[in-house]
């Protein structure tokens, strides 16, 4: 389904937004429309649709319910549900929506158009929308395209989205937006001092499955933003093998890299005045005779030693080497994104994006951006008293502290140890998966935090 606004604006059907608590807008419509609404019991519930036929039997007017404020507060993109219910055709939004509410309605319409159709044809006639007056159509289409990329990458099974496939996606983006890209893979990771990326990925030794570090750069002026995304294309748990039920969704363990690439696409498509660097350690955490083991002590790019107490806590290991590389340039801001801990899901569920920030001002900017673009976040604390939990004594750091307490916080503290020269660092511990379908968010892979970051960049980097 299209994730763009309608290009053919002729014969557009008026689509009237009706507020459930103030249905006076019906009074402004022809009496026949009001009568049709009353006859059909139209209540203006959020996302409720009523098509009004004209004399020739085609839709002449359509109504969509806006619900009550409490409904809108509990369901993001509620109006987007109308898209799947309306007859195919071109529609033009009518009503009193403006500002952020109008932006949310227009973006939700675009996002509702997403379908993952790589393996099954899901095409059908659809309802299209003319870009409403007052919205930045190009910006919303760029956001929708970035989100679609993220969803596609997460939804694709690992047989078609291994490390080499993830690299190819990054290369395609680099070509599309005239970015530079370099990739270090296999044994060259050891030669160029990325030992933990190599250790985690070395068990997947086939050429298209071997570990690699993807390094993409774009932009020649402005502040430098470095995005680091966890690219574990499948996570068996390694020798600490996951049970079958826990392994079922592990194609999404590269959700951090998918979200970073989607965000990078948004930034490049919008031509933001900044210097962007994207780092993705792409690996499979596989099982073979040369897999890394519990009890191993790895020496990181940073020089810090890490005791491996669980091979299923591998994401922070590959991120650590990539973060150390990012830190060597001391960019203006480093942001890492990862489907890192189950502890974060227990804490906040699948909808919220937990994040950590080394500066309160940066956290404020993210929160402010998030509330304006319907991309909810929740700040978590880099609680320094827990530092001792990641210090095993036999090595500098422990990748999987015992006890199970504060698992998301200790993971973020672990990563923060590898960003020592860059004052401004943020980490997002996202889920990357929508467990049940909702308006504009079908079941499956989903971007989290990207729109909030994009909205916050103006304040974060003084663009």
Descriptive report:
This is Leucyl aminopeptidase family protein. InterPro entries: Leucine_aapep/pepB, Macro_dom-like, Peptidase_M17_C, Peptidase_M17_N_1. Residues 310-317 form the Cytosol aminopeptidase domain. By secondary structure, the protein is of the alpha/beta class. The protein contains 15 helices and 19 strands. The chain has helices at residues 31-39, 69-74, 81-85, 99-112, 137-155, 163-176, 188-191, 195-201, 244-247, 255-270, 315-327, 342-348, 360-372, 407-416, 450-461; strands at 13-18, 49-53, 59-65, 89-94, 127-129, 180-185, 212-218, 224-229, 231-235, 275-285, 297-299, 305-307, 333-338, 353-357, 377-379, 397-398, 425-429, 433-434, 444-445. Strands 6, 7, 8, 9, 10, 13, 14, 15 and 17 form a 9-stranded mixed beta sheet that branches. The chain has a 5-stranded mixed beta sheet with strand order 2-3-1-4-5. A 3-stranded mixed beta sheet has the order 11-12-16, covered by helices on one side. The mean pLDDT is 96.
Keywords:
463 residues; alpha/beta; Leucine Aminopeptidase, subunit E, domain 1; Aminopeptidase; nine-stranded mixed sheet; five-stranded mixed sheet; 19 strands; 20% strand; elongated
Estimate what percentage of residues fall within beta strands: 15-25%
Most strands sheet = 9 strands, mixed
Percent in helix: 25-40%
The number of distinct β-strands equals 19
- The rounded distance between the terminal residues' Cα atoms is 34 Å
Individual helix count: 15
If you consult CATH, what is the topology of the largest domain?
Aminopeptidase
Structural class: alpha/beta
CATH superfamily of the largest domain: Zn peptidases
* Radius of gyration over C-alpha positions, nearest whole angstrom: 24 Å
CATH architecture of the largest domain: 3-Layer(aba) Sandwich
- Uncertain runs are none
What is the number of independent domains?
Answer: 2
CATH class category name of the largest domain = Alpha Beta
Taking all residues together, what is the mean pLDDT? 96
Shape descriptor:
elongated
Keywords: Aminopeptidase, Hydrolase, Manganese, Protease
InterPro entries: Leucine_aapep/pepB, Macro_dom-like, Peptidase_M17_C, Peptidase_M17_N_1
Organism: Aliiroseovarius salicola
Protein name: Leucyl aminopeptidase family protein
